[in-house]
User: Fold this.
Amino acid sequence: MDNAQLLISGLANGCVYGLIALGFVLIYKATEAVNFAQGDFMMLGAFVTIGLTNTEYMGLPFWLALPLSLGIMAVFGYLVDRLIIRRLFGESQTAVVILTIAIGFVIRFVAGLIWGHEPQTLQNPLAGKEVRFGGLVLGMEDVAVIVVTVLLTWGLYVFFSKTKLGLAMQGASQNQLAAYYMGIPVKRVQGFIWALAGVVAGIAGILFAAKGSVDPTTGLLGIKAFAAAVIGGFGSLPGALAGGLIVGVIEPFASRYVAAGYSQIAPYGLLLAVLIFRPHGLFSQVRVKKV
Amino acid sequence: MRIVFKTDYMQDIRPWKDIYQLGLYLILLVVVTTAPWWLDDFYLGELTNVLIWAIAGLGLMILTGHTGQASLGHAAFLAVGCYANVILIEAGVPFLIAFPLAGIITGIAGVTVAIPALRLHGIYLAIFTLALSVLMDDIIVLAEPVTGGVAGKYLGGVEIFGHLVDRWATPDQFFWLVLGVAVIVTLGYINLLRSPLGRSFIAVRDSEVSAQAMGVDIAQTKTISFALSCAVTGLAGALMGLYAGAFNNETFSVVISIQLLMMIVIGGLGSIHGAFLGAIVIGFLPQFLSISKEYVGAVIGGNTVAIPGLEFGIFGMILIAFILFEPMGMYGRWLKIRTWFELFPFYRKDMFKRQKSYLKTERLR
Assistant:
């Protein structure tokens, strides 16, 4: 029973990692760039919602603040692409990596200026409620996290594999020039995907802030989400979720059964092992390139 | 407008372009060497710090700037160098032997990292090294009997030929030690770039496929690049340990890794000058910010409030500005200005325009 409880809480945490990883994968799938600031996007989404909802700030009703903050995050994601990332169109991946790290620094700084450096929790209607399930006690938030994540991953997966726009995005990532010739508005597609990544980060942030507390350094969680994305293989949406769940489940079990000090190494150790033995993730999509 | 006429094949082989360039750098060297006589102790300490960062930057520049392998984990190698140096000194090895040994040990550590990392490209390598840097923190804590764990280690001055070299007691000597290392590393770097090895680094950076076609052994070249890069970084780490005096697992955190990479980007990737220019920005930014905060506070009349995270915020903004407007960094800007003067009426805007490459993925779906 103890293990089941650990498993459930691990799954809930893993879903948050999975959601951040989903943001990485979205952007990687459509632009082949990696947004190192995705964790900070999530932190920003959490703080925007806190700013709208919590009584010490604006005090809007939760269900009104929810779409509002997701809208803000979409606009924010779009603007980041429109004003900054798009100028790097046609430059190396490494430049985008460094640029997004810098954006993360700036977001952390600005969030600290606006909302302070104290940990804060989102006031939400689910807080404090519990679900009892055959002897297991689950927080309502944990259930919400798991449900929302699974639905979102499924929705995005269908979007990418079935809809015209989703296929256009994949085309844009595989060969920008060819996609352009085929009439895909590559730049607009890129803007859209950043907006989408902003929304996903917003959802992740809201769920995270409802479950625990956020402060400006929460974005560093993104490093763990990297582990999730890499384990799942960058470029695979279900893989990102699976990777997130693996990392999330390993953590509580490692901290329970492995000596202190070794336990926090577990996710990174797994990351290194995956990178060494299966460099493109467990759900690999890369074959050897032929010249 | 100045034209260098080439009259001799030796001119292409010499590390300096012409006698003026050589003279300029010699004057710079003399000015810097005499710094202890015209700088007060505080700024001398800062200058020492800048030089140490510059050495670390040179180390990373070999790997990232000239071999094109982005590393977000070089703080781990700073840590290896620092701890190796201290542990050797504590074991009774004299500094003059322990210091190069620390570099060699770090180089070997770099090779052990390079072998699995050889299969990784671009962002995967960046993530790999990032994870390495995060892990280093935990490894230092776990290896407590050797590293002192969370309590850390302490290193006073060291003795070289009976002279005490210490950051606080004898800042002049410490400065000269760091300067000497910096000069030796820089000269080595200049010569590396002239050698076949350095050329093959650049070939690997620009195109692995064409480098391979020209007979460059990619795996071997990358491994050597890792080894050299980590060895130099290890030397910088050893000096950083001396400079800090006391250090523990948190001294060489991921943030330092990221800062190091950002530093060489601001300075200018792929140039020796870039490491030094970037180090100047990193080294003096905190001082500059605190001075300007006092100044602003005095003008507005308010009290000087401490803004946490200001340094990183400003740093991030500078970096974004550089990547957007001057991807070649400070050294790139300087090259443009110099070319403008050298070619005076003939400079054209697109002279430094870069070839754009459009994306083709290696994924199938």
Notes: Chain B has 16 helices and four strands. The domain at 34-351 of chain B is CATH 1.10.3470 (ABC transporter involved in vitamin B12 uptake, BtuC). The mean pLDDT of chain B is 85. The CA atoms of residues 55 and 96 of chain B lie 18 Å apart.
